[in-house]
User: Fold these one by one.
Assistant:
Number 1:
Amino acid sequence: AQSVTQLGSHVSVSEGALVLLRCNYSSSVPPYLFWYVQYPNQGLQLLLKYTSAATLVKGINGFEAEFKKSETSFHLTKPSAHMSDAAEYFCAVSNTGFQKLVFGTGTRLLVSP
Amino acid sequence: NAGVTQTPKFQVLKTGQSMTLQCAQDMNHNSMYWYRQDPGMGLRLIYYSASEGTTDKGEVPNGYNVSRLNKREFSLRLESAAPSQTSVYFCASSAMVDTQYFGPGTRLTVL
C-alpha cells in the first residue's frame, strides 16, 4: 500500500526566502505524485504532478518539485516566497494512475513580511 | 463552467439525524470521489465512483452511503450522524486518468 509523509505540520518563512516543503512517499510500484494547495475555506487546487516523465516538475505560481527515486522524495520548492503563498500544502501519491489518491497530513506555510 | 459544486456549504446536525450531501460536476468527468478532511489527518477517501453505475469503498466508508445518480452527480448520505462525523467533506471529479478537481467543501458539525 502506498503512503505519504510530510515532515513539519507548519513551516515559517520570510517573504523573499526559499520555500522548501518536504514529502516522502512509499509505493511498491512507480508512483504518480502530486502537490495540492488549499487556501483558507477553499477546496484543493493542483500545483503540479509527476507522472514518470521529467523528474523536475514545474507547476503554477513558481513552484517546482523534484522526484528522487533513491530518496523516495518529492519535495516542493519555490525560490522566493510571497505573502500570497500562505496556505496549506498537501502531497499525494497514487500507484493506480490518477485515481485513489493517498494524501499526506499537510503542511501549513506561514509567510511573514 | 462551474467545475465541481457542493451543497450545502454548512450544516449542523444532531446525533442520529440523517442528511445527504450533494455534489455535481459539469466537466463531463467519468470518476467522482468523496473525501473527509480532519485536522492533522489530511484528506481521507470515503467512497469513489470510477464511472457511472459503479461505486467502491475507500479508506473510511463506515457510516456513509453513496449514490452515483448520473454522470454529473454523486451524493453522500449519512444515515445516522455521529459526532465522529464532524468534518469538512470534499467532492472531487476526474477524467478516467487525469487530475482530480475539488469542490469548495461542506462543513458538517454533528452535536
Number 2:
Amino acid sequence: AQSVSQHNHHVILSEAASLELGCNYSYGGTVNLFWYVQYPGQHLQLLLKYFSGDPLVKGIKGFEAEFIKSKFSFNLRKPSVQWSDTAEYFCAVTDSGGYQKVTFGTGTKLQVIP
Amino acid sequence: GAVVSQHPSWVICKSGTSVKIECRSLDFQATTMFWYRQFPKQSLMLMATSNEGSKATYEQGVEKDKFLINHASLTLSTLTVTSAHPEDSSFYICSAVGGGAAEQFFGPGTRLTVL
C-alpha cells in the first residue's frame, strides 16, 4: 500500500525566507506525485505535479519540487515566501498504473509572518 | 482548467436524518469520482471510488450502507449520508478524473454539521 509522510506539521516563516517542505512516499512501483495547496476557507488547488521526465518540476506561484527517486522524496521549495502563501500544503501520490487512487500526506501548515 | 462543483457547500441537519451531497464535473466527463472526508486539522481520507454505471468501491472501515454513493452519469455523483449522527460531522470533498487527464480535480467541499 502507498503511504506519504510529511515531516513538518507546522512551519512559521518570515516573508522573504526560503521554504522547503519535506515529502517522502512509500510505494514499490511507478508513481505520480503532486503537491496541493489549501488556502484558508478554500478548496484544494494543484500546485504542481510530476509524472515523468525532468525531476525538477516548476509549478504555479513560484513553487518547485524535485523528485529524487533514490530517496523516495518529492520536496517542495520556494526561494522567497510571501504572506499570501499562508496555507496548508499536501503532498500526494497516485499509482501511475491507471487506478488513480490518491494517497495524501498529513499536510503541513505554513504560516508566513509579514 | 476542469471545474468540479459541489452542492450544498454547507449543511446542518438533525441527528437521524439523511443528507445528500452532489458532485458535478462542469466541463468534462468524469469517468471516475472520488469521495474524501477531511477532519479538522487532518488530511483527506479517501472514502470511496465511484465509476459511472457501476457500484462504488469503499475503503476499509467505511460503511457502505451509511455512505451511499451513486454515480448515475458522467457528470454527477452523489453521496448520501444516511441516518447522520454528530460523529459524521466533517468536511466532505469530491474529486473527478476524466477528459483524458491523469490528475484529479477537486470540488470545493461540503461542510456537514449534524446536531
Number 3:
Amino acid sequence: GAVVSQHPSRVICKSGTSVKIECRSLDFQATTMFWYRQFPKQSLMLMATSNEGSKATYEQGVEKDKFLINHASLTLSTLTVTSAHPEDSSFYICSARPRTNEETQYFGPGTRLLVL
Amino acid sequence: AQRVTQPEKLLSVFKGAPVELKCNYSYSGSPELFWYVQYSRQRLQLLLRHISRESIKGFTADLNKGETSFHLKKPFAQEEDSAMYYCAVQPGGTSYGKLTFGQGTILTVHP
C-alpha cells in the first residue's frame, strides 16, 4: 500500500532556531503534497499545497516566509519552520497525492514540534 | 468559505448499538465529501468517500444535498470502531485535493 513517512517524528528546539520537517512518499510518486497543522484537540488546518517543481501555494493567513516549503522531487517535500517561536509548537501532518491516482491522498504520521 | 461542522466532540455507545456521527457542510458548488478515521496511535486514513457509495467496515454515509449533511452511520457498533472520526470536504477545480476538515468526533464503543 501507499506509505508516507515524516521525519522527524518529534522535535524540540529553542526559540529562534529553524526546523526542517521531511515528508516522503515511499512507494509512489506524488505530484502534490499537502501540509496541515493540528493544534491539540483541534482539527487539521491546511497550511499549503506543495507541487513538484513549482512554488507552493499557501492558505490565507499562513506566512510563506515563516513556513518555507520545498518540493524538489516527486517523493520529497520539506517544510522549514524558520525562526521558530513557542506559538509554532504544534503537530504538523503532510499528505501526498499519487501521480497515478489523483483522486486520493495518503497521510503521514505527523511531526510533533515543541519550541521552548 | 467552505465549512464543515461536526457538532459532537464526544460520542459514546455500547457495543452492538447503532451509531451516527453527524456532519454538516457549507459550500457552494459540488464538493466531494469524505470521512477519515484515526485510530489510537495511528495516522489518518480514508474511511469512505461519497462518490464511491461503498460500505467500509460496516459504515455508510449518505450525502443529503438538501440538508447539506453527510452523516456517518453504522447499525451495530464494535469496540474496534473506537477512534477519532473526521468529516472532510474537497472542492473541485483548481482547489482539487485541498481538504477542509471538521473538528472531529471521538467515538468510544463500550463493551
